[in-house]
Specification:
Length: 397
């Protein structure tokens, strides 16, 4: 029985490694060009809650955008903030030369409701681009994203790259390397027409498509999924060709890692929960299931070796770990290169050792544990807890 587990682990690791090596050809930067002619209104939507420390830098980035003759406006939506965020945005709106407006959620709460309110408020026929309040970007970000959309009639969603800035702590470095891996998977799976994930920190889509998704696929009752549920709806309705990834480095959005383990814990449970509530194509579910199986088998193999060490059996487990690590090092190095960042081999070793346990832990935990987000609690199904008195006066539609 042990040998079956060891050889099955090796086979699954080989399949996983082949996927990573095949993905390398897709993770290449391209210049989409910034010379565009586009007359339709473009609306940047940014929801926020208690982001007083991040908003000033974001607003400065908006002021520096190269918008020229674009019909551009900004809607920033306050989700019941309790700090100085509203004052910061209000002051900026009164001073900036950009057509900008501060909106306040009066009924409902959460990021999904904030985006919905802004989309409803946006002009007819708008092209919507979203980012988060803790993000920054370069002056050509908007033009790069729009240029990827212009001239492609069948395209309904543009997914842009997101980089998590590197910082000194172990937790922060872990997040950077994990996030780079997720971005690499996002790029490659979108390129082959089998999208797995995307990030609302850098998305562009048509207003009309979003409004139709509200009726059929956005799962507004759930806390998370404003990005992946929209992508899944578009993929199911229009096909893989309707979703494109922007490989232009000018379109990169930067965000910061969490520096608090409690926040990290709750965020990962929230992320893991998207998979159990989403409606992924069968290929995506099989791929995700295979990777989860690999981590489970690796853990079982390591436990068996520790309990009953046999040299030749340990070599099979070691070979599996070596193949997996080499494939991940090559894959991550390519992802870091795409973002123009330095890659440190020693840090991937930590990720390779911890990730099987980490993935299984949060994958299983999300099945029966809820989470907190922005000082609010959700149950294990991803729905806001009804009993929280903070929300008793809100419309919970």
């Amino acid at each position: 029985m042990e040998m079956i587990v060891y050889f099955l682990t090796l086979v699954v690791v080989l399949l996983y490694s082949i996927f990573l090596f095949r993905s390398l050809e897709y993770i290449k930067p391209t210049d989409s060009g910034n010379s565009i002619s586009f007359d339709a209104p473009i609306t940047l939507i940014i929801p926020f809650r208690n982001e007083e420390n991040n908003l000033p830098e974001l607003l400065s980035c908006i002021d520096r955008l190269n918008i020229n003759s674009l019909n551009f406006s900004v809607l920033i939506v306050n989700d019941h903030s309790e700090d100085e965020s509203c004052r910061i945005v209000s002051d900026w709106v009164s001073k900036t030369d950009i057509n900008a407006e501060l909106l306040n959620l009066t009924s409902g709460f959460g990021k999904k409701e904030a985006i919905k309110k802004a989309v409803d408020h946006s002009r007819h026929g708008s092209l919507i681009i979203t980012t988060d309040a803790d993000c920054t970007f370069g002056p050509d970000w908007l033009k790069s994203m729009v240029s990827k959309f212009v001239g492609h009639e069948n395209t309904k969603l543009i997914v842009g790259p997101v980089w998590m800035n590197q910082q000194g702590g172990m937790l922060e470095n872990f997040q950077t390397y994990e996030f780079a891996a997720l971005q690499g998977v996002t790029m490659s799976t979108l390129a082959i027409g089998n999208p797995v994930m995307c990030n609302a920190a850098n998305l562009l889509f048509e207003k009309s498509v979003y409004l139709s998704a509200l009726d059929e696929g956005m799962k507004m009752e759930l806390v998370s999924g404003d990005d992946i549920f929209l992508m899944q709806y578009i993929h199911n309705k229009y096909g893989a060709e309707a979703i494109a990834y922007n490989f232009d480095p000018h379109s990169i959005v930067n965000t910061e890692p969490l520096n608090n383990f409690k926040q990290f814990y709750h965020q990962r449970i929230r992320w893991a929960g998207k998979w159990k509530t989403g409606v992924q194509p069968i290929g995506v579910r099989l791929s995700g299931g295979l990777i989860f199986l690999m981590y489970v088998l690796l853990l079982i193999s390591l436990i068996l070796i520790v309990l009953n060490f046999v040299f030749y059996k340990s070599l099979i487990v070691l070979l599996s770990l070596m193949i997996k690590t080499v494939a991940e090092v090559v894959f991550l190095k390519r992802a870091f290169s795409f973002f123009g960042k330095s890659f440190y081999f020693s840090r991937i070793l930590l990720l390779a050792v911890l990730y099987p346990l980490y993935s299984v832990f949060f994958g299983m935990l999300s099945l029966f544990k809820g989470f907190s987000w922005k000082d609010r609690k959700a149950d294990n199904s991803g729905v806001w807890e009804m009993g929280n008195p903070e929300f008793s006066n809100f419309d919970r539609k």
